Amino acid sequence: MLDARWRAYGLSAFVFAVDRVTKWFIETHVSVFDVHRVVPGFFDIVHSQNRGVAFGLMNDSNSAWRTVVLIAFSAAALVLVAGLLWRASRMDRWTAAGLALVLGGAAGNLFDRILWGRVTDFLEFYVGDLHWPTFNVADSCIVIGSGLLLLELLRTKRQAAGA
Predict the structure, then answer these.
(1) Of residues 19, 44, 112, 121, which has the active-site annotation?
(2) What is the pLDDT of residue 70?
(3) Active site residue 129
């Protein structure tokens, strides 16, 4: 049986690979002017560049330090999560999976930020004039992983017999 640690790192590597392939596809096949309607009035595939953080925060910042600070914080978070996953065999599977998804997603976005100073986003959801900020596979995995971690925190823990 595979060690829990390597399963978790394998899931992270899979997330990273899927994120890279999808971003590459968008960057090479979709111009910034294209809008591909998937579900009219609800979901489009677009090509946008985000130099900021989640939800486009700091995207319009002109600070020379913006990219350096974002890379430093992202790298620190990546090291922390990778370190936590080293102890995956001591975690329940949902916690390990949540951390693995966060690690893979963070690595995907950090890779982009280091190489190009920006992150490619392409999934756009909206209803009428209400638009959710455009995001990517890495962002999705970070949110899903965080949700798994939150659910695990909220889940009632079974008490040991006689406790």
Answers:
(1) 121
(2) 82
(3) no
What is the tens place of the pLDDT at every residue in 13-25?
999 999 999 999 9
Catalytic residue among 19, 44, 112, 139: 139
User: Does residue 92 have an active-site annotation?
Assistant: no
DSSP string of 65-130, one letter each residue: THHHHHHHHHHHHHHHHHHHHTTGGGS-HHHHHHHHHHHHHHHHHHHHHHHHSSEEEEEEEEETTE
Inter-residue contact 74 to 125 (CB < 8 Å): no
Question: Would you state the torsion angle of the CA atoms of residues 13, 14, 17, 23, taken in this order, to the nearest 10 degrees?
Answer: -120
pTM: 0.86
Cβ(98)–Cβ(146) under 8 Å?
yes
